[in-house]
Amino acid sequence: MKKRVILHAGDYFFGTARHEVATLLGSCVSVTLWHPQLKIGGMCHFALPENHFINPRFNPRFADDCYQLFQRSAAKHNTHLEEYQAKIFGGGNMYEKMPQARNILSSVERLPVGEKNVMSAVSFVTQANIPLLVAHVGEFGYRNIIFDIETGDVWVRFTPIHRQGDQSSLSGGF
């Protein structure tokens, strides 16, 4: 029987084939990394793309700190990030854009946080030369995801926030 690990915003986990990792995402993003030969991998759940605070410890609430944690975990297992496969989830738009800030903010600053989070995740995977297999991101809604470290599969249930009733859809095997 697999041990289920639940991640909340600001959590990070790296484990073996006996684990599955689950989380709920709105504008937050989860990146999964999976090593297909060793059946090890990890998942982060970050809320913001950058950590602007000076702190010697990594804080997985921030994307850039999660990437450092992935690098450390890979090194601890005598592997390199390029040996893993990446999948990116989340970055949903939870609110309408705020047009009143148009004159004082740059176009990047006006982007919803979910879009900034997705951009950060894609940039990390690209710069680290990690193959990106799936990106299930954006739209208005939230996602429940479960990452099976044994198989590398990630199951996704997307629920739009603009519809009433049971409008969720289950996608699997990403």
Automatic annotation (TrEMBL):
So where does this one cross the membrane? none
Q: Which InterPro entries match?
A: CheD-like_sf (IPR038592), Chemorcpt_Glu_NH3ase_CheD (IPR005659), Cytotoxic_necrot_fac-like_cat (IPR011324)
Pfam families from the xrefs?
Answer: CheD (PF03975)
Entry-linked CDD domains: CheD
Q: Which UniProt keywords apply?
A: Chemotaxis, Hydrolase
Substrates-to-products reaction catalysed: L-glutaminyl-[protein] + H2O = L-glutamyl-[protein] + NH4(+)
Q: Record's Gene3D superfamilies?
A: 3.30.1330.200
E.C. no: 3.5.1.44
The family database entries (HAMAP family) matched by this protein are listed as:
CheD (MF_01440)
Question: What is this protein's function per UniProt?
Answer: Probably deamidates glutamine residues to glutamate on methyl-accepting chemotaxis receptors (MCPs), playing an important role in chemotaxis.
Question: Family assignment?
Answer: Belongs to the CheD family.
What protein is this chain from?
Answer: Probable chemoreceptor glutamine deamidase CheD
The record's gene field reads: cheD
